[in-house]
Amino acid sequence: MNKANQIKQGLCFFSNQQKYNSTTLFDQLFTVFRELLMMTGGDVSEALQWLNDVDRKYQITKSEFGISDFIKELELRGFLQRDKTQKILVPTRKMDANIRQSSFDELFGKIRKVRPGRHHTKFDGLGSENALSSRPFEFGDRYNNIDSTESIQNALINHGIDSFQLDENDLMVRDNFYQSNCSTVLMIDISHSMILYGEDRITPAKKVALALSQLIHHHYPKDSLNIIVFGDDAWEVQLKDLPYLQVGPYHTNTIAGLDLAYQILLQKKNPNKNIMIITDGKPTCMKRGGQYYKNSFGLDRQIVNRTISAGVKCHKQGIDLTTFMVTSDPYLVEFVELFSRRVHGKAYYTNLDGLGEEILINYEKNRKKTR
User: Fold this and answer.
1) What is the pLDDT of residues 327-364, one digit of tens each?
2) 195 and 202 in contact (C-beta within 8 Å)?
3) Are residues 336 and 191 in the same domain?
4) Where in the sequence is the domain holding 229, given as residue range(s)?
5) Half-sphere exposure at residue 18, Cβ-oriented, CA atoms within 13 angstroms
6) Is residue 269 part of a domain?
7) Are 47 and 56 in contact (CB under 8 A)?
8) How far apart are CA 234 and CA 252, in angstroms?
9) What is the spatial distance between Cα 207 and Cα 218, in angstroms, rounded to a whole number?
10) Model-level pTM?
11) For residues 228 and 242, what is the distance between their CA atoms, to the nearest angstrom?
12) What is the rounded average pLDDT for all residues in the chain?
């Protein structure tokens, strides 16, 4: 599946966006362009070409504001700038920040509705932080934990303004929980299969990483998040490069990813250490004697054993491992269940729409009380 087909497959996103919440034509175009920019790996020229195609198909622009006007507006607002050497349009830091925030709003906004709580532990008490979401009042709750804003909102909805009253059924509370710092490495599979089989899996994975980084930066600044990608090899990526990651013609060297994550977490002083892996397949590659050993056919015993050994090494250092499988192939599920059982980890099998919710809720749960 080449890049053109990847973007075409992603156009289903836009077919569901014809009733925009945005109030301006610029906002409508910007929503589409931002998505295309992630799909094209930050290639502004290619994203604009696809934007023209989208515009022809869905007739977004009007005679008084066309694509050329939109490009000028992007420059005026500081989202794009001219590269001085190549003289082409490139994304700015402001664009990078906007992509991070939009990913956070898109994914975390959904999760707040399910009221999962915020990084809480089973040890409640006076605590230093409140839960992010409120819950209904229960007998025995402290009255100083009542969320006045949500309680009054419930009362208005339940009783109306004319006959306003506040009773026990309207009350919402925010729990306090003891907090502990957390170090997390998020591993993202960038092997070729992440854009195969008719699905663009890399864009949702990037959005999850962006949302998670935004969550930690704004809500848990004492936590740390490192993001690494793994194909034939594994390497760490910077936050500024994350929106524009591309899948390569790689196999899946999960061993290299686990080894790098292990090295990163050994240097962290936080008591809670976690590795979260987003992948859609089995490991198919490893280094042996300085050479690549690859086998895409079946579960190679040597590769599987080395992968499990790398995971066990992490577990012995108190590192929790969680695997998020973005495919439901029974053959691949067999490997993930074996791996999770041997490393005492967890496994989630989720579709792309539910990936962000699963990972962010899992991150909340992973911040445990330490004694």
Assistant:
1) 767 777 888 889 999 999 988 877 677 777 777 677 77
2) yes
3) yes
4) 182-366
5) 9
6) yes
7) no
8) 10
9) 17
10) 0.73
11) 10
12) 81
